[in-house]
């Protein structure tokens, strides 16, 4: 099967759903989501069980990492759609519409198009394709973030994301320009071949270009100091979109970052400087994400800071690129990150819907209102904090391992401190759920069947990954 | 009979899960603990010390590329620790309240802590050795926070954050250890790592750093001075079963790790940092001991005392000779049993009186003869009087420390530390006797006239713990002969 | 292997265990169990007395490279001590049945007593230092339990604590000494050490310090200065306990131990001198204090201190056998004195102040006469037991160290003086209180032991008797001048006491310094307050506010504050974000392009 | 003749002007325009490089294709961006970024 | 292109670029942007990129800028009022910009070979550059082209969703 078909199927699915949306007025919009979920699941199965020959298209690869990230994007989108169903009431409330279902269909189908972009990013090894898929993702996120436009916060988030996103695109493009200018190529494979013959006098320009590319990607993965949009946008955006941003967009950023760095490995003079840059970014990101999270009182914002913090750990693995399992560490960490972050968001959506707010105090007494949700979120928090026998630990373990292996002792010291911080702010949520008593409404929280299954599956997966490390170790094989 | 080792942690773990799924909390927990106890007892008794080595092993390869497997098995040392764990777990389960809001959650947490400890001791693979220990972290946080007393929230935060940082330092240390092995031989298998120690794999300057990471990592978990301040407050605030399990068992994890990994694998680095360890352990004994004297509440006294007694175990470890190390191992068992008994008793006391403040209590021996008798025994054990296992082990520790000396020469660091440790025995007598006197002796304020004594039906776990202390106090050889073959591989 | 010593040793332990586990609710049964056990021990002690010397042991702990052994060493010393301990012990057990008849905690009492017998016999039988240390600690515990028997009384509870803690301080030195000896010689067995110690070629300093550390143990257990303060307070325990533990046996353990390990001291003149002068000083101090006490048991306690001091000084003088001989005789008459005092106290309903007594001669004749015998024996009246044993010490003192001899003579004078004072005030004259008016003789179960103890008090000192129990003593001819001096001192002391106190209703002499025990206890409480408690306060403060508050919380707080500050970068202004973004880009470019 | 460096410098300066606009202006529309300047600056460089890297006597058209894509993407971005700004204006009656400060800390 | 002409267009472009930033009226800014893009198009043409020059004028100066103007009109944006300067922000912004320029100049002039004249190109191949770009686009870059189609769909859907007054 031609590998390119996958994205096209997803794209067709998305467009088809948009068509259904526009022509089937009476149709319950949740059907659209369900179709989307089923369709994506089919693509996932196809991806899982189909065989894909090496790609013949220039700038488009179908290696293990690409396949992994495609699956990653698919799962993320599926879960985001499931969340969106739970979130649709809120969307309805904040969208101008003459019919009650206005905008919901688009809210369900746009993520699928975004997913196609994410999948393209996973395979892209040419700056042209990287740029376009990145922009496809970004532009759809502009829409999605601002989607609930009667909610000023959502608009504000959209505006901030728009301006800062465009700014980072500017730097990114300018960086590509320079890389092209010096290597005369946009294809990463060719660049890697050309690099060793670059004269020393041109290396500054090359480095300049590469740095600007890293800046652009740093923006996507929320690396400090390019992370300032993250808390505001995450807080303002519709929650499923926040989850999508924090998982899908970030992961895509990381795969591109890895591919770019991989290309530059053929010129050690540049590579060492770039990894030094990544070390700086990682340290700053770790410190910023984890420390600034400490005083947070809003759960959604807390997750935003936590997302920055996790970007720090991921960058730590990226910075240790020379180590044996660095790629694996990133992959495993991202897989774990997907499970636990999406789990947190899905619980957040359900709780926020029933508590009229997403502050940590709204989780007070959750253990009484819904032991199931409380326990699931407990697992998510434990995993995010990196408690062993959960997926999060396996990720942290590998990150520390590769960092130690490539002797990133500065990062390790910083990370030790930040892991401690992490325990504090994640357990704040646990504390609210289990120690505190409910302040507001006492009623039990209903959870839909689909969400129950999803939550249950995520919890089980978190444990499975934690207990059977071979699942993680086998992600790239 | 390889399933036995698995039963030691599966008993409590399955119990915890079943409780969460609605089984009768108390009965299930106790059943799980009994399963653990029986299997660990069989392991302990069945361990063939003449044959030595690791027995009852079973392994399940997980990631062959890293040589990561789920590998369990026992030698004398961890058979002993498993026995301690399951005994204390049973006692803790029994001493848990009968009527409590969300009792199922309470018991599940208790069992999870027990399972974590047992799993850590049973594992012969670095990954799971570490991972199991952390299983206790969140339940401890929850239990202190929800069911604790006094300044529970601050205490819960402190213990959790402190231990998590300690653990992560430890994790880095363990990773360092793993990476010190040349690329093709890398393994998480503790047994293989131990075998490598003979080939001087873990030497050189990097060994020093890895050693320090492990020392401080494990040390924090054991409340090595000055990383100890989490312990007293947490134990004071914790519900009884948590205090029993944590002070009695979980804390031993760090010592166990030092004994199993750090010291045997890196004797050279250990030698380089003897001075550091000796200095810190004197801090444990003298400084914390003095601070203990100043405490005005039983729970705090016990908490501090458990920190202080760690100093003796560290002294035994620091000697790195067979006598001291065996003593340390035995002391781990003895201290675990005695501190668990003490916390159980103090819990009962608090249940009856609602306070543990010395200034409020007095003369309770009159109303609670059995409790005061049991407390007396536990106290004697704690201050290291003969007849209890603590004495035999402390004795070995002291002799081990003096074994390092040149006959007739001026005192070396070990001996100076021993002098301090001996004085620490005086200090521990001072605070424990003061505690006993202010609670049980003297005038009885009239408000305690109707305080009810503990019954044997309720207090039998304490009797069991004390019986263990007395049995091993009279016959320490029963434990030592099991431990010794494993120890003799590395120490003389 | 002879099983008799094991039976001697373990039958009291068995009794204690049986009482604790089974017969606690049955007070009478408990007491019989305890008495039966000590009777068994006594019987077997008698059989052992006739058996040959032996040194038997088994490994208690065996690590291959290191063994801890438990065993017994039957020789002249231990045979004698076995008999004294079981014999006196048996009588006191019997006496206790009567004395503790109405006590609620009788079972506990007898369990403690049995435990004590076990521990004491363990010390006697021990053939190595570690075993001795084990039982050494155990006698401390049993003493603690028994002193604190009436735990409701704050004074008793405090006294019990004091006893155990002070003993622990002594044991601190003792253990250290043991470790030093072991470290130097590689063994703790008395048998091996005796032959080996002098051949080790240790430095004089090391040997002396090791010996003195061992001596510390004796200082604690035998209540020598400066650790003597616990013994007078220990009188808070029931009187039979005072008789058995704090007069006849346990406190003598220190002396017994010194005699056992005399080889450690033999080579070190300095160590011997310290032992001698500590003993002499304690003895003098205690004798002076005794002259001003009004509590009948306290007088006896100080007298015990003083006599123990004599024994210790005898060891210091190089005559351990004399020390043991005095221990031997002292056990009888001091036990008798205490039991007599107990009889009086019991009869006067727990009145202990001797100024509230008087006129007991008619009402309690048996007690009166036996007490008189014991008083005279202690005072050194020839030819009673005390005369002979003290004489040996005085003679040795004059032989080896005249200064010490002189002081000892003075002590003996005061001994006779305060004993006479006690006797005159408590028994003679007229009844000075309601209770004394209605005093009556004690029941036979208490009276018979008095009589049985009076006999050895009378005869135990005679040289033939001495020869039975001390076959190892070298036959030094009686020193006539020393004897004369002793007799003179005795008469002077008795006379002075009799004259000064006859018919008095209150103390005609008041020396606050003596009455207040030289203010040593006060000094100690201040010392403890300003050292231990102050240090404890400082440590707790440092722990709470500097390590925990400053470092731990400080670091935590700093991190948190840093996080709090970082949030102010996140001010919500888009332009600020853009600026920070640009600043980050520029900074990074400079760092990477130009700096790195 | 103007050299490549001159073009690059001109492009760089244009980029900087755009960047300065983002940093200094408060009106979100103008900021957006400034962002367009930045993208176009990149385009200028690309075209310059394209001309510089001649292949067989022809400019490197790959770069020009990239420029084409960038222009398209920029147009798409402008469409969505302006839609966001319109929605924002409708909700808040302002396009000034100082008024976008409800999300912070 | 002869140097004087080049410099004229550069200055033209940069001047109006600066005008975009400094004009207080949004309309004036937008108009300046159009002019700036015209200059840019001229530079493209000077680099023999005729197709791009035309596209630049059609798409940018034509469509995009009209969109901008249209929105400005629609929202009826007034000239920005003169307000007190936030000195710190101003200073900070200028510092950052100046430093960035410094980096740029260093990098640009470090480029090897950039000071030589452009290599000559042959104008007589037969096909114009539009053909060349088109061939590349539809052969070599057909995948990105499809992607950009998706991008445009997403953008148009997004624009509708966000700006339509009432959704149905």
State the helix count of chain A. 19
Mean pLDDT, all residues of chain B: 91
What is the chain-wise order of helices and strands of chain A? Answer: HHHHHHHHHHHHHHHHHHH
State which percent range the strand residues of chain B make up: under 5%
Reported for the largest beta sheet of chain A, the result is: none
Shape assignment of chain B: globular
Gyration radius of chain B (Cα, Å) is 21 Å
Number of strands of chain B: 2
Structural class of chain B: mainly alpha
Give the N-terminus to C-terminus distance of chain B in angstroms: 32 Å
Quickly give the structural class of chain A: mainly alpha
Order of helices and strands of chain B: HHEEHHHHHHHHHHHHHHHHHHH
User: Please, what is the oligomeric state?
Assistant: heteropentamer
Largest interface: D-E, 69 and 88 residues
Q: State the helical fraction of chain B.
A: over 70%
Your description of this structure?
The complex is a heteropentamer of chains A (477), B (492), C (596), D (105) and E (168). Chain A is built from 19 helices and no strands. Chain A has 477 residues and is mainly α. Chain A is globular and about 70 Å long. The model of chain A has no long low-confidence stretch (mean pLDDT 91). Chain C has 596 residues and is mainly α. In chain C, a hairpin with a 4-residue loop joins strand 1 (54-62) and strand 2 (67-74). In chain C, helix 2 (27-50) packs antiparallel against helix 3. Chain D is elongated and about 55 Å long. Chain E is 74% helix and 0% strand. In chain E, helix 1 packs antiparallel against helix 2 (26-46), helix 2 (26-46) runs antiparallel to helix 3 and helix 5 crosses helix 6 (142-163). The model of chain E has no long low-confidence stretch (mean pLDDT 85). By secondary structure, chain E is mainly α. Chains in contact: A-B, A-C, A-D, A-E, B-C, C-D, C-E, D-E.
């Amino acid at each position: 099967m031609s590998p390119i078909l996958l994205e096209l199927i997803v794209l067709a699915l998305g467009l088809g759903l948009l068509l259904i949306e526009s022509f089937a007025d009476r149709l319950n919009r949740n059907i659209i989501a369900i179709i989307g979920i089923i369709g994506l699941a089919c693509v996932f199965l196809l991806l899982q069980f189909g065989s894909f020959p090496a790609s013949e298209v220039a700038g488009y690869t179908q290696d293990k990492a690409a396949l992994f990230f495609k699956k990653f994007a698919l799962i993320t989108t599926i879960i985001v759609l499931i969340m969106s169903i739970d979130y649709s009431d809120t969307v309805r409330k904040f969208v101008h519409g003459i019919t009650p279902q206005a905008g919901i269909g688009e809210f369900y189908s746009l993520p699928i198009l975004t997913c196609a972009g994410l999948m393209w990013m996973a395979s892209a090894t040419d700056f042209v394709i990287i740029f376009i898929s990145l922009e496809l993702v970004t532009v759809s996120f502009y829409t999605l973030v601002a989607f609930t436009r009667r909610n000023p916060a959502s608009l504000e988030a959209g505006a901030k994301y728009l301006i800062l996103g465009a700014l980072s695109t500017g730097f990114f493009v300018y960086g590509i320009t320079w890389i092209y200018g010096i290597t005369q190529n946009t294809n990463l494979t060719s660049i890697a071949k050309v690099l060793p013959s670059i004269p020393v006098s041109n290396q500054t320009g090359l480095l300049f270009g590469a740095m600007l590319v890293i800046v652009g990607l740093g923006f996507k993965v929320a690396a400090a100091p390019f992370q300032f949009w993250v808390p505001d946008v995450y807080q303002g955006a519709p929650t499923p979109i926040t989850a999508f941003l924090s998982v899908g967009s970030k992961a895509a950023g990381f795969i591109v970052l890895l591919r770019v760095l991989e290309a530059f490995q053929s010129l050690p003079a540049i590579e060492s400087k770039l990894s030094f840059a990544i070390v700086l970014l990682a340290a700053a990101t770790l410190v910023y994400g984890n420390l600034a999270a400490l005083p947070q009182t809003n759960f959604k914002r807390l997750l935003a800071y936590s997302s920055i913090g996790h970007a720090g750990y991921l960058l730590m693995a990226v910075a240790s690129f020379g180590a044996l399992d660095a790629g694996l560490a990133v992959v495993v960490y991202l897989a774990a990150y997907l499970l636990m972050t999406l789990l947190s968001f899905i619980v957040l959506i359900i709780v926020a819907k029933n508590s009229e707010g997403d502050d940590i105090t709204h989780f007070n007494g959750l253990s009484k209102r819904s032991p199931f949700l409380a326990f699931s979120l407990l697992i998510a928090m434990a995993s995010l904090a990196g408690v062993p026998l959960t997926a999060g630990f396996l990720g942290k373990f590998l990150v520390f391992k590769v960092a130690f292996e490539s002797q990133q002792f500065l990062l390790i010291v910083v990370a030790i401190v930040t892991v401690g911080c992490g325990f504090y702010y994640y357990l704040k949520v646990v504390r609210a759920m289990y120690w505190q008593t409910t302040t507001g409404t006492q009623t039990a929280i209903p959870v839909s069947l689909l969400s129950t299954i999803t939550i249950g599956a995520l919890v089980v997966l978190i444990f499975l990954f934690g207990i059977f490390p071979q699942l993680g170790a086998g992600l790239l094989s | 009979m390889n399933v036995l080792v698995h039963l030691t942690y599966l008993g409590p773990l399955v119990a915890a899960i079943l409780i969460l799924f609605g089984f009768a909390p108390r009965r299930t927990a106790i059943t799980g603990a009994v399963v653990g106890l029986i299997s660990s007892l069989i392991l302990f008794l069945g361990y063939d010390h003449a044959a030595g080595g690791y027995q009852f092993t079973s392994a399940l390869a997980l990631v062959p590329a890293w040589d990561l497997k789920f590998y369990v098995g026992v030698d004398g040392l961890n058979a002993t620790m498993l026995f301690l764990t399951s005994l204390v777990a049973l006692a803790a389960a029994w001493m848990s309240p009968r009527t409590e809001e969300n009792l199922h959650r309470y018991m599940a947490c208790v069992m999870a802590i027990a399972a974590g400890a047992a799993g850590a001791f049973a594992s012969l693979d670095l990954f799971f050795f570490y991972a199991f220990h952390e299983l206790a972290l969140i339940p401890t946080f929850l239990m202190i926070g929800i069911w604790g007393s006094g300044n529970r929230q601050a205490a819960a935060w402190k213990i959790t954050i402190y231990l998590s940082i300690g653990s992560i330092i430890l994790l880095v240390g363990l990773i360092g250890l793993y990476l010190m092995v040349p690329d093709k031989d890398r393994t998480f298998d503790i047994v293989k790592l131990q075998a490598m120690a003979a080939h001087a794999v873990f030497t050189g300057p990097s060994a020093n750093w890895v050693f320090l990471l492990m020392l401080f990592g494990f040390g924090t978990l054991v409340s090595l001075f000055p990383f100890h301040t989490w312990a007293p407050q947490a134990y004071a605030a914790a519900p009884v079963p948590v205090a029993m399990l944590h002070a009695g068992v979980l804390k031993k994890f760090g010592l166990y790790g030092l004994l199993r990994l750090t010291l045997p694998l890196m004797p050279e680095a250990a030698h380089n940092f003897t001075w550091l360890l000796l200095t810190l352990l004197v801090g444990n004994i003298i400084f914390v001991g003095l601070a203990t004297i100043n405490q005005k509440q039983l729970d705090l006294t016990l908490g501090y005392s458990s920190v202080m007694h760690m100093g003796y175990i560290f002294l035994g470890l620091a000697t790195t000779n067979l006598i001291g190390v065996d003593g340390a191992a035995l002391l781990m068992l003895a201290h675990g049993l005695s501190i668990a008994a003490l916390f159980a008793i103090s819990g009962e006391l608090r249940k009856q009186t609602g306070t543990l403040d010395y200034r409020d209590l007095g003369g309770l021996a009159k109303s609670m003869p059995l409790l005061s008798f049991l407390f007396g025994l536990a106290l004697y054990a704690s201050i290291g009087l003969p007849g209890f296992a603590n004495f035999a082990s402390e004795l070995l520790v002291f002799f081990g420390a003096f074994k390092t000396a040149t006959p007739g020469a001026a005192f070396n660091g070990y001996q100076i530390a021993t002098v301090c440790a001996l004085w620490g025995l005086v200090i521990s007598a001072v605070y424990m006797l003061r505690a006993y006197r202010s609670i049980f002796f003297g005038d009885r304020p009239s408000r305690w006239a109707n305080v009810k004594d503990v019954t044997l039906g309720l207090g039998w776990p304490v009797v069991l713990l004390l019986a263990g202390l007395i049995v091993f106090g009279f016959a320490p050889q029963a434990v030592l002969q099991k431990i010794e073959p494993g120890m003799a591989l590395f120490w003389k | 292997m002879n099983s008799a010593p094991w039976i001697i040793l373990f039958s009291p332990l068995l009794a204690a265990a049986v009482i604790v586990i089974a017969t606690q609710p049955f007070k009478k049964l408990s007491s019989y169990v305890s008495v039966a056990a000590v009777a068994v021990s006594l019987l077997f002690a008698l059989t052992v007395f006739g058996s040959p010397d032996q040194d038997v042991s088994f490994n208690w702990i065996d690590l291959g490279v290191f063994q801890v052994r438990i065993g017994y060493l039957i020789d002249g010393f231990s045979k004698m001590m076995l008999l004294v301990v079981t014999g006196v012990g048996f009588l006191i057990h019997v006496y206790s049945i009567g004395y503790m008849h109405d006590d609620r905690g009788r079972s506990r009492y007898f369990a403690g007593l049995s435990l004590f017998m076990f521990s004491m016999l363990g010390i006697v039988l021990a053939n190595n230092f570690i075993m001795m240390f084990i039982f050494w600690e155990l006698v401390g515990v049993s003493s603690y339990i028994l002193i604190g028997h009436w735990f409701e009384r704050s004074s008793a509870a405090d006294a019990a604590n004091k006893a155990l803690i002070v003993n622990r301080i002594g044991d601190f030195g003792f253990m250290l000494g043991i470790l030093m000896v072991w470290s130097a010689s590689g063994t703790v067995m008395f048998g091996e050490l005796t032959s080996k110690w002098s051949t080790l070629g240790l430095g004089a300093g090391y040997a002396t310090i090791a010996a003195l550390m061992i001596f510390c143990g004796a200082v604690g257990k035998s209540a020598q200065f400066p650790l003597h303060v616990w013994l007078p307070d220990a009188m808070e325990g029931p009187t039979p306990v005072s008789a058995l533990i704090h007069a006849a046996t346990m406190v003598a353990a220190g002396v017994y131990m010194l005699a056992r390990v005399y080889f450690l001291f033999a080579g070190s003149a300095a160590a011997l001198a310290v032992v001698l002068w500590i003993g002499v000083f304690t003895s003098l101090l205690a004798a002076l204090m005794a002259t001003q006490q009004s509590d009948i048991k306290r007088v006896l306690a100080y007298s015990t201190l003083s006599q123990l001091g004599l024994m210790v000084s005898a060891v210091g003088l190089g005559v351990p056998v004399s020390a043991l001989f005095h221990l031997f005789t002292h056990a009888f008459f001091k036990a008798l004195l205490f039991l007599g005092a107990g009889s009086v106290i019991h009869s006067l309903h727990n009145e202990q102040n001797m100024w509230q007594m008087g006129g007991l001669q008619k009402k309690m004749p048996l007690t009166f006469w036996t007490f008189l015998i014991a008083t005279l024996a202690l005072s050194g009246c020839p030819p009673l037991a005390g005369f002979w044993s003290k004489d040996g010490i005085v003679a040795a003192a004059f032989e080896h160290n005249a200064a010490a001899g002189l002081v000892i003579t003075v002590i003996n004078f005061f001994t006779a003086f305060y004993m006479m004072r006690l006797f005159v005030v408590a028994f003679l004259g007229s009844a000075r209180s309601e209770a004394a008016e209605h005093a009556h003789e004690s029941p036979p179960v208490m009276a018979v032991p008095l009589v049985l103890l009076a006999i050895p008090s009378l005869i135990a000192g005679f040289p033939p008797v001495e020869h039975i129990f001390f076959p190892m003593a070298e036959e030094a001819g009686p020193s006539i001048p020393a004897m004369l001096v002793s007799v003179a001192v005795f008469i002077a002391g008795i006379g002075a006491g009799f004259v000064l106190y006859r018919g008095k209703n209150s103390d005609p002499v008041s020396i606050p310094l003596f009455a207040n025990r030289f203010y040593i206890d006060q000094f100690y409480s201040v010392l403890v307050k300003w050292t231990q408690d102050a240090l404890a306060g400082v440590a707790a403060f440092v722990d709470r506010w500097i390590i925990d508050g400053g470092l731990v919380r400080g670091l935590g707080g700093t991190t948190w504050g840093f996080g709090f500050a970082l949030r102010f970068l996140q001010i919500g202004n888009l332009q600020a974000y853009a600026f920070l973004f640009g600043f980050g880009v520029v900074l990074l470019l400079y760092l990477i392009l130009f700096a790195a | 003749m103007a050299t490549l460096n001159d073009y690059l410098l001109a492009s760089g300066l244009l980029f900087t002007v755009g960047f300065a606009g983002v940093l200094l202006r408060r009106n979100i529309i103008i900021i957006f325009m400034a962002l367009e300047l930045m993208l176009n600056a990149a385009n200028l460089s690309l075209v310059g490089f394209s001309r510089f890297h001649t292949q067989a006597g022809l400019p490197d058209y790959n770069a020009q294709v990239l420029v084409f894509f960038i222009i398209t993407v920029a147009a798409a971005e402008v469409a969505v961006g302006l839609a966001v700004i319109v929605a924002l204006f409708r909700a808040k009656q302002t396009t000034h970024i100082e008024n976008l400060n409800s999300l912070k800390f | 292109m002869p140097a004087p002409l080049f410099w004229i267009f550069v200055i033209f472009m940069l001047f109006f670029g600066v005008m975009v930033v400094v004009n207080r009226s949004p309309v004036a800014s937008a108009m300046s942007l159009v002019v700036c893009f015209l200059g840019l198009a001229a530079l493209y043409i000077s680099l023999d990129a005729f197709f791009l020059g035309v596209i630049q004028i059609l798409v940018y100066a034509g469509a995009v800028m009209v969109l901008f103007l249209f929105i400005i009109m629609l929202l009826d944006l007034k000239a920005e009022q003169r307000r007190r300067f936030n000195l710190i922000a101003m200073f900070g912004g200028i510092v950052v910009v100046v430093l960035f320029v410094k980096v740029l100049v260093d990098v640009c002039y470090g480029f090897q070979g950039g000071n030589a004249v452009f290599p000559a190109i042959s104008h007589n191949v037969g096909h114009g550059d539009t053909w060349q770009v088109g061939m590349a686009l539809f052969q070599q870059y057909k995948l990105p082209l499809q992607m950009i189609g998706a991008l445009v769909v997403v953008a148009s859907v997004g624009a509708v969703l966000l700006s339509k007054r009432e959704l149905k």
